[in-house]
Amino acid sequence: MDKRIFLAIILSVGVIALTQVIFPPVQPPAGADSTLVAPGSPADPASTAASTTTQQPASPEQPLGVPSSVSGDPAAADSQLSIPVVRAETSVVDTPVSTWTMSSLGAAPVAVEMDAFRSLRNGARATDQPPVQIVRQGEPLLTYAVAVPGDTVDFARVPFSVRESAGADGSPVIEYSAVREGITLAIRYAFVPDSYLVRVSTSASGAPARSFLLVGLPRGLASAESDTLGDQQHLAYAYKPRANGASSIGFGKLDPGERRLVNGPHSWVAAKSKYFIVGLLTPDDGEPFAEFSMVGGPREVGSERATNASGTALMSLSGDGANFELYAGPQEWRRMVALGRDFKDSNPYGGFMQPIVQPFATIVMNVLLWMRGTMNISYGWVLVIFGVLVRLVMWPLNQKAMRAQLRMQRIQPELQAAQKKYAKDPQKQQQEIMRVYKEHGMSPFSTLSGCLPMLLPMPIFFALFFVFQNTIEFRGVPFLWLEDISLKDPYYILPLLMGATTFLVSWIGMRGMKEVPQQQKMIMYVIPVTFTFVLLNMAAGLNLYYAVQNLAALPQQWLIARERRKAAGVTVKG
Predict the structure, then answer these.
(1) Nearest to 24 by CA among 305, 345, 351
(2) Which run of H or of E encompasses 447?
């Protein structure tokens, strides 16, 4: 193989190895206002949340957005006001896919249990484990506040009256109302059958003009994974401006107390872990979120892990109030796609390579899901078949590329002779080189055009690399000796097999060459070791796919090596 191919592969491996290190913090899209607010400054939530009498009403010239007294966290608002301790009234709503526990204190969901997904903690079998809980115990899923000119009225700890009923289709409906400081906040939850979706309608009677609803997202999500640390590292807030693509900011990217404010309009905002998500989605033809603010929370003592933050979405209360849809459930591809509004992009795959990786990730997910549904086999076997199919589809292009390399190797002696003969006459040397290319029906670009088809599977490999990081379809899927193909192989069998087959592909590919440069021989050993090291602790399914790719490539490599030896006049047996 041409050394430029090896260089391209080495660079690709380098990108994979450094992905988690070199990803820069995600910047807000063009046109968004990303502001860092230092604690104690006039814009800091801590210095404005408790102020209820000294703030001046917003002037007519004040731009649409958070009034000067609005906190980035509804739960922090009105901290100086005393609220009597009351007993919360609890309502439990069973749907075909989840169980919701609602509290009249704050009119918020305080538990969401998903029956189809079991905890994988403590290494026990999923069937022996309890259902996954999205919300951490003792923490609400949402918090509410109303921002009025010069003040923020917090409803997070206010007791609401509750009324339970049924919608026109018989689905459960829960309505809450409470009065505070002359404002009556009404919140209605309509549970969509056979879905993780809830339609939320709010109104604030008595609120002055230019009032806003503040909806606080969870400060973090509960972890139900065997790799708790890996799950926590995926904690992030995401948002989708209507005019731009989705963005995601990990909790670890927010310093404690640091505030980021992203102006809208936003189609949706979300808090997510590795596999589960809590999203607030606005109707396409409805009022969008005017802005989204995030504040970094304290780090865990000793580990410095970022497991807490606060995210707040702001929506105008003008007209009929503020309405949105609440999705609290798994990041299942088809469900996310069905919700529309590019909600499937809440996991922006690829980091700085997103424009290239995201389309391939979409194609790969659609193909894998189709194969799984059509063949009714485990995702492990789906990956095996998918790896073989990719090689078969690429066979003609790879064959063309390999033969182009053979032709290039045949004319190398003539090219080197021309370079040596006319070393002192560059113009004559160039003419002679072009003559050699023309006689053999080639051009200086033949090598490059021949190498490109061999690199085409790389975008699929990159897509799978990112897809395996948080695709719930692979979560807890066993295969052969593996208990979970989304986790690393505990015995390192697949990474070692992948490395060995990578070496075998290179070794067979060099058979029949009259002279193999020392540099190329060294690369033959470096690439397998590098790949093995990089993928050692990656998802077992990713190693499985790449090992299958290598095994499927061996017949073609053997055939081309046989063809090379025939062209060199070497007797070939078998």
Answers:
(1) 351
(2) helix 446-455
